Amino acid sequence: MLISRFRYYLGSIPRMLRGFRNWPTVLALFMRLPIPRPITLILRDTGLVLQVRTALDAWLVKEICLERQYEAASVPVQDGWTVIDVGGGIGEFAIDVARRFPQARVLAYEPAPDSFELLQHNIGLNHLTNVKARPYAVAAAPGQVVLQRRSGQGALTTTLGEAGAATATAVTLDEILRTNGIAHCDYLKIDCEGCEYSVLLSASDDTLLRITAICLEYHDRLSSRSHLELKDHLERIGFRVSTHPSPVHRGQGLLTAIRAG
């Protein structure tokens, strides 16, 4: 694990230097130099513009927008698709998809108020009309949930636990499809810091069978649940499931589920 972690971080340096037009600013962010926040990242190849607060935000942009880790682990998103992003953060995945595919319909759900505010701001920076942001958590049941922030990072907000500094309104995956009139979801991306189990295990079979591709980040060490539960559950209703362990974090990785046929 130590060697793979070293190789991964070392290999990420040239990717960021090549991928960001304003790489000196990104370097200053990672070196914790006193620069104004948020900073604006500009992707060299696509011209995508995203404001970020921290080095972790910039790292996620590297993984999601430069390396496209979700699509690399599952299937490439295509134009005209309906895409749901659970745990939208500051918009790394949703905005990148919406900008690349102007005919796609993208819905992003992000409960943390500061992340949601930046998500909306980043949508405006890229002049997008095909992505809509919703300030809701996605959970096993509708109602109010407590938000907890791991390590003080907005990008690591979870609804696990019973104590926190803020609350958010929660909706279910079933409700998302019903209230938005979604008969078919082509791609569901989930990164909600350990809440992926409740999101999927509480969804009805009918809802899951209206989704073609799922790619999620699993976090086995944040709760007593295991991604193997998700694997068994999704395989039971006909998905082909594969897993891709993280090269740097134990008990974490990507799980991909593709509906057969």
Description:
With 261 residues, the chain is α/β, with parallel strands linked by helices. The protein has a single domain (76-259), classed as Rossmann fold (3-Layer(aba) Sandwich). It is 35% helix and 26% strand. The chain has 10 helices and 13 strands. The chain has helices at 2-19, 23-30, 55-66, 69-73, 92-100, 113-125, 173-179, 196-201, 205-208, 227-236, and strands spanning 39-42, 49-52, 82-86, 105-109, 131-134, 137-138, 143-149, 157-158, 166-171, 185-190, 211-219, 239-245, 252-259. The chain has a 7-stranded mixed sheet, sandwiched between helices. Strands 6-9-7-8 form a 4-stranded mixed sheet. Strands 1-2 form a two-stranded antiparallel sheet. Helix 5 links the parallel strand 3 (82-86) and strand 4 (105-109). It is globular, with a radius of gyration of 18 Å. The N and C termini lie far apart (37 Å).
Record keyword descriptors for this entry.
single chain, Rossmann fold, 261 residues, 4-stranded mixed sheet, alpha/beta, 35% helix
Proportion of helical residues: 25-40%
Order of neighbouring strands in the sheet with most strands? 5-4-3-10-11-13-12
Radius of gyration: 18 Å
| Gross geometry | globular
Question: In terms of per-residue confidence, which ranges show pLDDT below 50 for 5 or more consecutive residues?
Answer: none
Mean pLDDT comes to 89
